Structure formats: structure tokens, C-alpha cells
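Sharing a chain and its predicted structure for anyone who wants a worked example. Both blocks are below, sequence first, C-alpha cells second.
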Amino acid sequence: MKFFNTVGALALLLAFALAAPAFAADRTFVVDNTHARIGFSVTHMVISSVKGEFKQYEGSFTLTDRNELVGATATIQAASLDTGVEKRDEHLRSP
């Protein structure tokens, strides 16, 4: 029984020793457009709400080993605006 406890403890120690370097560095994550959405909602004349989204965007963020945010970037293509009403979208995209 003591043999298995020692082997288990050594295996656990080895796992932590191998994993430690992976957690020491900052980690950068890229936004996955298939699982994310950049949307908005604007109240119009107090009685209705206009919803829309941007179809083309990219972004990333960097976390420390303590999950503290140390950096973030985002680029949104304004021309990819979509409210579901083409005439309104053209108006919003105009200068």
C-alpha cells in the first residue's frame, strides 16, 4: 500500500513539475469568430430597440499566469454592420 502512495505522490509531483513552465508565461488568446459576436442595441424614439452586429472583426487578449489582463487588441470592420434592414445599413455606413 505504501508503494502505491509513493508512486502516486511521485506521479503527482512530476505532473506539477512538467506543468509549471507552461503556467509561468503570459498566454495570448485569439477571438474565435465562430463562437463570438459583436452586437449592439440602440433605443429608437423611446419605443423600439434596433439591434445589429458587426460581421467582420478580429481580436486577441493576453493574460498572466494569475489570469490578469495585460493586453487586448480588436479590429472591427465598420462596413460589416448588419441590422437586418439593408436601407438602414446603407444609411449608417454613409459618411
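Comments welcome. The first strand starts at residue 27 and ends at 30.
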